[in-house]
Request: fold
Amino acid sequence: MRALFWLLDTAISLYVWALIIAAVMSLLLAFNVLDSRNRLVWTISDFFYRVTEPALRPIRRFLPDLGGVDLSPLVLILLLQALRILLGEIYVGMLSNGIGF
Reply:
């Protein structure tokens, strides 16, 4: 049981980092700091776009248009952190009831 909670927590942490990297790459591409014609840059940005976009698209539908400012990564990171806290509380509750191992 401990391994399952660890795996879920690690997967959520990695996804949060993927969201951060995707947002930073998006900004760097928008301000022409990175050249999207470079094959390596394009491949990396395409990977992070494909990994994060399915989770961000439904959030974007509910957020108001802020004129080019995309807050959906921030909203998703906050939701994922809340999920991590909830999983931690469930795990501690299971340990206190003797179900943990």
